């Protein structure tokens, strides 16, 4: 008996092999991971355990990845529910939501935020790494004045720039989109900064969203269950038309998110299981856009790729990637010399220097071998501070390789 269901989609296929005799049209094949770009798991650990029904199976058929937003300073101390199951990965963000700050403790919050980011940067344990700053932004329902909210937002933008982290943005109030965008534009000089503007729906100022996507090439928009809250209003219709018009580039800029425990998709019935909710949102999206080349599965795969691009640093991928090629002295041809070598001094472990190829690949020393590790996606090199980068010519790179091989 399924604990939840989505019209025309097989929920069973989220956690089990389905022989497709169920009669449902849409299935998620096993082994395709599910990435949720924005969730809140912290305050409700016992509830997560009961709501994440689909991940709690004896023989898992896929991996689940959750970008977990720690947006309330009061809850920063609560440990992330990391790895309660080995196929479930939780990546923390940290930030101050415009609704959840108190001016009395604000400067203490800024200090704490900086400390957490500093600790995360130096932490050898990849599991604890903070992957983004946020969610932060502007909110018309906040008790704080807009000027005060802007001040708190700007502080966080500066920290994200300093720590080379992406920013998760929140904006409630159509009239505030322009203010938030202006703030980003004036504060961020590196247009390649990675940005995730979460919860884009019919309440968004879509003109500003277009400007945002054009201005920042590594920016993404988060689509969640709130897109299913259809009304007959002009806004709802405008949003649908906007999705259809922008659909050619949507797969490149889309992040699927649940925002659980908020915003359950209306076409998800039964328990709000966040591991199934993305399927509902993707189902709604493909029904709205009606393009045979864009399917539920293709949206999930594009979103997975984009979440990795925006939030998961190369360091984390390095650990998780399974593609590693052993380089021997006589097979230099395995290395594409077009990759500009960067000596990655970012590693705090000085006994091994990883060589990072524009974040497209890494050579690292592993016991007696040298491994050449290809990332499955191309990363922008914004991860490393300019001061931490040292470009080395190809011959030096070969020399370094030889050193490893000696
Ligand atoms: Zn099925
Ligand atoms: Zn949220």
Automatic annotation (TrEMBL):
Pfam short name (any one): TatD_DNase
Mind listing the GO molecular function terms for this protein?
hydrolase activity, acting on ester bonds
Q: Which SUPFAM superfamilies match?
A: Metallo-dependent hydrolases (SSF51556)
Q: Which residues form the signal peptide?
A: none
Q: Which family does it belong to?
A: Belongs to the metallo-dependent hydrolases superfamily. TatD-type hydrolase family.
Q: What is the protein name given in its UniProt record? A: Uncharacterized protein
| Protein species of origin | Rotaria magnacalcarata
Taxonomic lineage of the native organism: Eukaryota, Metazoa, Spiralia, Gnathifera, Rotifera
């Amino acid at each position: 008996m399924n604990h939840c269901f989505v019209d025309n989609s097989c929920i069973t296929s989220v956690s089990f092999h389905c022989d497709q005799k169920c009669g449902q049209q849409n299935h998620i094949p096993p082994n395709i991971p599910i990435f949720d770009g924005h969730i809140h798991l912290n305050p409700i650990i016992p509830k997560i355990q009961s709501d994440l029904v689909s991940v709690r199976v004896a023989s898992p058929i896929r991996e689940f990845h959750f970008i977990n937003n720690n947006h309330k300073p009061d809850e920063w101390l609560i440990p992330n529910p990391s790895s309660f199951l080995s196929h479930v990965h939780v990546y923390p963000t940290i930030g101050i939501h415009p609704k959840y700050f108190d001016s009395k403790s604000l400067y203490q919050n800024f200090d704490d935020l900086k400390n957490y980011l500093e600790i995360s940067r130096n932490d050898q344990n990849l599991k604890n790494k903070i992957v983004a700053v946020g969610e932060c932004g502007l909110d018309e329902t906040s008790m704080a004045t807009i000027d005060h909210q802007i001040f708190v937002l700007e502080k966080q933008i500066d920290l994200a720039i300093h720590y080379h982290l992406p920013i998760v943005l929140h904006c409630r109030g159509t009239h505030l989109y322009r203010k938030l965008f202006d703030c980003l534009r004036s504060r961020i000089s590196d247009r390649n900064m990675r940005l995730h503007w979460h919860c884009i729906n019919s309440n968004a100022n879509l003109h500003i969203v277009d400007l945002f996507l054009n201005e920042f090439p590594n920016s993404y928009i988060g689509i969640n269950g709130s897109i299913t809250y259809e009304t007959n209003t002009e806004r709802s219709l405008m949003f649908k038309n906007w999705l259809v018009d922008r659909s050619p580039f949507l797969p490149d800029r889309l992040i699927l998110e649940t925002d659980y425990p908020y915003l359950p998709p209306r076409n998800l019935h039964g328990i709000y299981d966040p591991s199934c909710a993305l399927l509902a949102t993707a189902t709604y999206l493909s029904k709205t856009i009606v393009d045979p080349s864009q399917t539920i599965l293709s949206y999930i795969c594009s979103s997975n790729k984009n979440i990795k691009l925006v939030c998961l640093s190369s360091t984390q991928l390095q650990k998780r990637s399974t593609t590693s090629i052993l380089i021997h002295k006589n097979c230099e041809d395995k290395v594409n010399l077009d990759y500009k070598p960067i000596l990655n001094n970012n590693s705090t472990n000085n006994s091994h220097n990883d060589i990072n190829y524009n974040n497209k690949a890494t050579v690292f020393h592993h016991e007696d071998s040298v491994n050449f590790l290809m990332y499955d996606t191309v990363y922008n090199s914004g991860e490393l501070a300019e001061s931490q980068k040292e470009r080395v010519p190809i011959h030096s790179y070969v020399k370094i390789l030889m050193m490893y091989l000696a």
